[in-house]
Amino acid sequence: MQFVGWNFDLQYLLGRVPWDTGVTPPEVVAVIERGDLAPGRALDLGCGTGTNCIYLARHGWQAVGVDFSVLAIRRARRKARRAGLDCRFYRADVTDLGFLDDPFALADLARGRGERRLRRLRHRLSQRQG
């Protein structure tokens, strides 16, 4: 994990972060704006600079973001603070979430690198709920 986190930190330093668009995915927006779920606790895995957490917090959610890039987490905390929102951000491996309290009503999983690890995580999360 350390090499991967360092590599992502380097990408953030160089400004080469095409995955961090600053736009909440339309699928998340649709669920929130349709009112399918009442606001509760939301978990954003691979949160980057916190775009989705900030969006969710603005809509009444208690948002928690996890990412292994220390630079992304610093930027996420700064953005939330500047927006006057109380989001929680943790620098951690998204496949090792033992430090978090259950339950979460909504989870957003980052796409792209690490898909196999995220599939294992989804499996573990589904076992915890069942």
Average of pLDDT: 83
Uncertain runs: none
Number of helices: 5
Q: Tell me the structural class.
A: alpha/beta
Report how far apart the termini are.
29 Å
How many separate domains make up the residues? 1
Number of strands: 4
Relative strand content: 5-15%
Outline type: globular
Q: Radius of gyration in whole Å, from Cα?
A: 14 Å
Q: How is the biggest beta sheet arranged?
A: 4 strands, parallel
User: Roughly how much helix do the residues carry, as a percent range?
Assistant: 40-55%
Elements, N to C (H/E):
HHEHEHEEH
Describe this structure as you would to a colleague.
- The chain has 130 residues and is of the alpha/beta class.
- The protein has one domain (2-19, 44-129).
- Helices cover 45% and strands 15% of the residues.
- It has five helices and four strands; from the N terminus they run H-H-E-H-E-H-E-E-H.
- It has helices at 2-14, 26-34, 51-58, 70-83, 115-129; strands at residues 41-45, 62-67, 88-91, 106-109.
- A four-stranded parallel sheet has the order 3-2-1-4, covered by helices on one side.
- The longest helix is centred in the last third of the chain and has 15 residues, at 115-129.
Topology summary:
Layout: H1 2-14, H2 26-34, E1 41-45, H3 51-58, E2 62-67, H4 70-83, E3 88-91, E4 106-109, H5 115-129
Parallel strand pairs: 1-2, 1-4, 2-3
